[in-house]
Design a protein that fits this description.
The protein is an alpha/beta fold. The chain has helices spanning 6-17, 23-28, 52-65, 86-94, 110-124, 129-141, 147-154, 158-166, 172-180, 185-191, 197-210, 214-233, 241-254, 276-290, and strands at residues 32-35, 39-40, 71-76, 79-84, 99-104, 258-262, 267-271. The strands form two sheets. The protein has a five-stranded mixed sheet with strand order 1-5-3-4-2. A two-stranded antiparallel ribbon has the order 6-7.
Length: 291
């Protein structure tokens, strides 16, 4: 992918992206009129979601002003393959355009095309967190690129690439909300530190229902992570199975660590909180129960 002004961005940094094709720099400044019927979509396009309202706005804009920003393609047998600009391409198809302006880049390898398509969307911030994760995953799995290599291509830290790909390990419901824009990557990353999937889903539901901030989410996730760490580090547990079961059930209800001291007849219940916001949330929860 390129960037907001495709020609200028390509001319500026393309040699660092694909050094084995120096002529791309010169080609990027040339614009050709190409028949829409000669263009096929990019099978490695990282962007999968197209907001209907945003698409309609783009269609209306292009109908009124024409296609100001060219798409980007590469030559293939019997035509061209789209590298970047699928939203613009789809809008022109809907408007029954016969031709569109396009940058034609002599990109021969699939990995180079995938890199360009991913970089374009990342720089334009067009991808949702899961589309970005899937793009990195394709580069790593299909094209055998290391996280370090991907990071250099898109201008990010290696840890950012690794953490982005890790989002794909979250439960499907959480991934769907990330894809739909209902959940931010900042909210989702702390969930990765929780080993128990049900706990991940419980905290995710609270984020959505209560509108938790990223910081509050991090605090709650840390509390659940600490529980997991202590469980792993203390394989010999003197507490009864009854107490552990009750603690687990209560923890799922209140969303934080619960410590049960005593037996089935009497004892105390200790509920942890990790911030003023967390304490207020617990108070609201208990008041709801009281009502």
């Amino acid at each position: 992918m390129t960037a907001k002004k495709l020609g200028s961005r390509l001319g500026k940094g393309i040699s660092a992206i694909i050094p084995e094709v120096p002529e791309i720099v010169e080609s990027a400044s040339k614009i050709f009129e190409i028949k829409l019927s000669d263009i096929k979509t990019n099978r490695h396009q990282p962007r999968k979601s197209f907001n209907p309202e945003a698409m309609q706005e783009l269609v209306d804009s292009i109908r009124e002003n024409g296609l100001i920003q060219p798409i980007t393609v590469r030559p293939v047998d019997n035509g061209y393959e789209l590298i970047a600009g699928e939203r613009r391409f789809r809008a022109c198809v809907e408007l029954n355009f016969e031709q569109v302006p396009a940058h034609v880049l002599p990109v021969t390898s699939d990995v180079a095309m995938m890199e360009l398509a991913l970089i374009e969307n990342v720089q334009r911030e067009d991808l949702n967190p899961i589309e970005e994760s899937e793009g990195y995953y394709v580069l790593a799995s299909t094209f055998d690129m290391s996280h370090e290599e991907i990071a250099k291509k898109v201008g990010k830290k290696r840890s950012s690439i690794t953490n982005s790909i890790r989002l794909l390990n979250l439960p499907r419901l959480i991934i769907d909300d990330l894809r739909a824009g209902k959940l931010s990557a900042g909210h989702a990353r702390p969930l990765l530190n929780i080993e128990n999937e049900q706990q991940q889903l419980n905290l995710w539901r609270r984020i959505i229902d209560e509108g938790l901030s990223v910081r509050a989410t991090e605090t709650l996730a840390k509390g659940l992570k600490d529980i997991n760490i202590r469980t792993i580090s203390k394989p010999v547990e003197t507490k009864s199975s009854f107490a552990r079961e009750i603690e687990e059930k209560m923890m799922h209800i209140v969303g934080t660590k619960v410590n049960l001291r005593g037996n089935q007849s009497k004892g105390t219940i200790e509920i942890k909180y990790y911030s003023e916001e967390d304490l207020t949330r617990l108070l609201d929860l208990f008041q709801t129960i009281e009502e």
